[in-house]
Model the fold of this input.
Amino acid sequence: MSDSLQARVVIVGAGHGGGNAVAALRQAGHLGPIDLVGDEPIVPYHRPPLSKAYLKGTAAMETLKLRPESWYANNGIALHLGRDARTVDPVARTVTLADGTLLSYDVLILATGSRARRLAIPGADLDGIHYLRDLRDADMIRDAVGPGRRLAIVGGGYIGLEAAASALSLGTEVVLLEREARILSRVACEPLAGFFDAYHRARGLKIVTDAQVEGFVGLDGRVSGVRLGDGQVVPCDAALVGVGATICDQLARDAGLTCDAGGVVVDDDARTSVPGIYAIGDMTWRPMPLYDGRMFRLESVPNAVEQGRRAAAAIVGKAPPAHDVPWFWSDQYDLKLQIVGVPFDSHRLVVRGSIPDAKFAIFHLSDAWRILAVEAVNMPQEFMAGRTLVGEKRVVDPDLLADTGVPIKQIVQGPPPAP
Done:
């Protein structure tokens, strides 16, 4: 029997990356001991519903778990939950936990992810100011919303918009403050952002752009408003800050792993610069095979799952699975946004469908008409077609894409990609 199948594996991080890497190892035939370390006191769970179904109270905690607790015991997984990993010694091949526990490893997988970026402004320590990253955060926000409550959201990204839609559905009065000239400024093209802006406003969300948040004001130690740069104070009973994430790479840096501003540098199979150590998920600065190997950081569940599978295959000595085409999603009201690909060097946008009817897809094309990415709203067939077209680096006539009289299936079944 191969030694790789018996290797002792320690996984630090019990989010989507770590939780799926455990299963991928067992599915790949790994037989050795596995230790899973997580700083939350519960088994790995789905995080995307925290701003949607869970926040609205339509999903229970038990339904969020990636796998039931019994699965870990039945598969020989030693859980170390509610404990941080403090140090990694790559020479001795050990991980030291906050309570002093010393775990030895043959192979280490780091899946420490990222944390919500904090605002360092006056009043930031007042009660009632929330960030949304884990279950505890979501529970506190659930207690803060409802009829007669006022919620201020700082940040007009997808998390902020999803939370706004959920809070509005519960009868909360919501105002969203975005420092840029438009919402979704870093993550969506202008036509898509404009659509979501209008859709939210029509449902009662007050959106303030070019809003420079300078501090929070409070009463008796609890937030009562958000102070803007022009002196205006936006009153609220609670505030949610969603201004991006900070990579949790300090453990890796302290262990001497090569890191970039974008995270821990890894190869196609999630190997780091130190033998025996892999890194997966939000914390990694990874190659993008579909985009000529350029390096990028992907913050998505599919990325964490893909890297976990490729790391597992490498650890047990099996051929790696095919690379996935990057994809993302967001649910807001009755809208399902599905995105495939990353619009690096996007040259032209082609809209297919009807933006006013909330059923459309925006195709990002290169200057050679290669499809780089697709943003689809309530058009699942276009999204699925996009996975093929982006994955095959397909070149398509823009006029053909825009013509809804031509079925998307026909476009997919068109001429094969150039060799």
In short: The chain has 13 helices and 27 strands. The longest strand covers residues 213-219. The chain has a mean pLDDT of 96. The CA atoms of residues 113 and 282 lie 5 Å apart.
